[in-house]
Amino acid sequence: MTIEIPTPLRVYAGNQSAVTVEAKTVAEAVAALTTQYPDFLKHLYTPDGKLRSFVNLYLNDEDVRYLPQREETAVKDSDTLSIIPSIAGGN
Amino acid sequence: MLCLSQQIFDALRQHGEETYPHECCGVLLGRFEPGINAVEDAIRAGNTRTDSAHNRYHIAPQELVKIQRLGRERGLDIVGFYHSHPDHPAQWSPTDFAEAHWIGCSYVITAVEQGAARQTNSFLLAGTTEDDKRFENQKISVTGQDVPGLPPQSASTGLSAEPGESEPEELPAREASGH
Fold first, then answer.
1. Nearest Cα to Cα of residue A28 among A84, A86, A76
2. B99: part of which helix (H) or strand (E)?
């Protein structure tokens, strides 16, 4: 499957905008990414191993957090996983 | 430096006028060049913070996914974001800083006073991680002409920055052209 890399994190993926990984679930896909590019770990996860609150994972157009099986959701080669840091603020 | 056309510059400022007294927000698509974030399009986004839209904004991640996909189809990257500060200076706030995570991208803020766009400033989110990120004042060039803005020094660093700390003086208002 394809993992879309947001612009701020491309430097940790050889400046690629997308990475192709072999995986059967979302969790396996992220694990494959962080195995291939270990620097991703600290940007995606807190020191205690939780996905950072501002990092969103979207499987195609679905928020992984709200999928019934979350990170254990099965994926196909044609699927795209997007890593999207949040955008918010205000005065 | 943030480079954009007059049309795009006007469009993001007009967006802030249209949504006043609420904050507008959008995404800047373009290309990263050495020392330059070159904007080729500004995509309007919805502000999901309807509970406090006068002083908060949030872009739905799903909308970001679609805009990122749109950019990819056009060979463009997300190089920045914009939003407005209704009746508030065009300065980043502690909330803006805490919620900024796109390192290397430009965060453009337009002050909108009583419905009229005034100063527009850009801030580059510099650094390498959440621990050392910082906003740096970023020069804006509209169709090759510099827009009067903030000095080039870093506005401040760190999450502990007090509101208003290191805030440069607001320069004379720049009226939106085409109005």
1. A76
2. none
Residue B178 belongs to some domain of the structure: no
Using the beta-carbon criterion (under 8 Å), do A42 and B25 form an inter-chain contact? no
The parent domain of residue A51 ranges over 2-85
Helix (H) or strand (E) segment spanning residue B81: strand B77-86
Looking at the structure of chain B, the number of domains it has is: 1
In a domain, B64, yes or no: yes
B56 touches chain A (CB under 8 A): yes
Strands A62-63 and A2-4: unpaired
What one-character DSSP code corresponds to residue B160?
A: T
In a domain, B82, yes or no: yes
Of B66, B89, B101, the CB nearest to A54: B101
> ipTM, 2 decimals?
0.92
- Domain of B67 in residue numbering reads as 2-157
The whole-model pTM stands at 0.88
Measured in Å, how far apart are chain B's first and last C-alpha atoms? 26
- For residues A28-50, average pLDDT: 93
